[in-house]
Amino acid sequence: MTVLVTGATASVGRLLVDELVAANAPVRALTNNPEKAALPGVVEVAKGYLGKPETLPAALHTIDTVYLAPLPAYVDEFVTCAKEAGVRRVVVLSGEPAEDEKQGNPSEWHYYKIERATRTPGSSGHSCDRDSS
């Protein structure tokens, strides 16, 4: 099954793409600018961005597993889209203290939001195809 990698051209996402390709895993990379992505030829490229939820349904089509680069402002929309697309597993880049937003460095609280949203996906009231303008 194809793995969707978000943030596929950033530092962690690009390394993950390379590791998945080396393991002969099918990869779809989400990128805002496919022409400049410089991804390996075996990678399927999906034009889109987590901050533009209307681009996610096509990118998530037939995807079972997603590597989710953190973008807290749009995590609820992503979860809605992933659930609608039938995604079964989401792997997130996280950090400490992801268990409690009240502990640790406030700059790391975004990890808490991401983990909370992906662990307990519920009805966020967000639409997968909402217009972000």
Can you walk through the features of this model?
This protein is of the alpha/beta class and 133 residues long. It has one domain: Rossmann fold. It is built from four helices and five strands. The protein has helices spanning 11-22, 56-60, 75-85, 109-119; strands spanning 3-5, 27-31, 44-47, 65-68, 89-92. The protein has a five-stranded parallel beta sheet with strand order 3-2-1-4-5, sandwiched between helices. It is globular. The protein starts with a strand and ends in a 14-residue tail after the last helix. The model has no long low-confidence stretch (mean pLDDT 82).
Radius of gyration: 15 Å
User: How many structural units, i.e. domains?
Assistant: 1
Query: What would you call the shape?
Result: globular
**DSSP strand content:** 15-25%
The number of helical segments is 4
Here the CATH topology equals: Rossmann fold
First-to-last CA distance: 33 Å
What order do the helices and strands follow?
EHEEHEHEH
Largest sheet: 5 strands, parallel
Mean pLDDT: 82
Q: How many strands in all? A: 5
Which CATH architecture would you pick?
3-Layer(aba) Sandwich
Determine the fraction of residues in helical runs and give it as a percent range: 25-40%
Give the name of the CATH superfamily. Answer: NAD(P)-binding Rossmann-like Domain
- Structural class call reads alpha/beta
Poorly predicted residue ranges = none
Lateral strand order in the biggest sheet: 3-2-1-4-5
What is the assembly state of the chains in this entry? single chain
CATH class bucket: Alpha Beta
